Amino acid sequence: MKPILTQRMMTVIFALLVSPTVIAGITDIAGAPVQETDYLFGSIQVTSRVYTIGNLYLYTYDLTNPLDSLQSASWFSVAIAPGVDIVSVGYDTSQTKVVPAVWHDIGNPIVSIDAQFLSTINPGQSSTTLYYLSAQRPGKTSASMGGIAETGSFVCVNPITSPVPEPATVLLLSAGAFLSVRRRNRSGTQYQ
């Protein structure tokens, strides 16, 4: 790896950690994605891209509403699997597209990352790139989107690319859940 590229990646990681809400040109500095997938939520397309930056994964989402759509998106939510750590959350400010009023993590531990848009993503418009950073590899969870349609409001739920815990973490979470259920069952047992 060239020294300039290493310095640039360290600057990116530092910027992501220090300024978790906005960064300009995130897709330009991340290089080519290691994974790219398109998903349809009604007529609105969500392009999911995963990049690697050092030992972290950068997950990005771009919402595109086609010109002939009868829907306008006002919110988007990505489910986060139990055991996944999110390092930073933000969106790309270098784009002159629909920017979220809020794009943040929900819950402790985090159960989702939600975007709410002040103005809806109308037909012919796209969102700015939404992103978050995680050490976990890509897998699939679910995402949901809602807004206004010609016939009223709409909500769509689909699988989407997002981080999933390593197999060892899943085993530990399962073992902990099993032991807590077993302990709860034992404490509820009465002997006569």
Q: Would you kindly provide a written description of the structure presented here, covering whatever features stand out?
A:
The protein is α+β, with helices and mostly antiparallel strands and 192 residues long. It has a single domain, classed as Immunoglobulin-like. The protein is built from three helices and eleven strands, in the order αβαββββββββββα. Strand 2 and strand 3 (44-53) form a beta hairpin.
Task: Specify the overall morphology.
Answer: globular
CATH fold field value: Immunoglobulin-like
**Proportion in helices:** 10-25%
Q: Tell me the span between the first and last alpha carbons.
A: 71 Å
- What is the chains' assembly state? single chain
The structure class reads alpha+beta
Unreliable sequence segments: 1-11, 13-22, 168-175
Q: Cα-atom Rg, whole angstroms?
A: 19 Å
- What is the CATH architecture descriptor? Sandwich
Give the domain tally: 1
Give the amount of beta strand, in percent: over 45%
| Topology as a string of helices (H) and strands (E) | HEHEEEEEEEEEEH
CATH top level assignment: Mainly Beta
Q: How many beta strands in the DSSP annotation?
A: 11
How is the largest sheet built, in terms of strand order?
1-6-9-4-3-2
List key phrases describing it.
Immunoglobulin-like, 3 helices, 192 residues, single chain, 6-stranded mixed beta sheet, disordered N terminus, 11 strands, alpha+beta, 5-stranded antiparallel beta sheet
